Amino acid sequence: MAREQKAKGKMEEAAGKAKETVGRTVGNERMTAEGQAKKSKGAARQAKEKTKDVFKH
Question: For residues 57 and 39, what is the distance between their CA atoms, to the nearest angstrom?
């Protein structure tokens, strides 16, 4: 389960980074902000899973 969540976090982070880059390229501030938010959400999910792993072992 944790591995799935980590992978989901990585995918979410990558998608957010891509969206942020596209938003900057086309000059769309809203898209850039959405990308940053999605990237942060993915990073937070990964951090949560890593923390759970630390306490698990």
Answer: 28
Q: Which residue has the tokens 């990585």?
A: 10
Q: Which residue is associated with the tokens 């698990």? A: 56
pTM of the shown model = 0.81
Half-sphere exposure of 13 (CA within 13 A, CB side): 13
From first to last of its 57 residues, what are the pLDDT tens digits of the chain?
Answer: 678 888 899 999 999 999 999 999 999 999 999 999 999 999 999 999 888 888 876
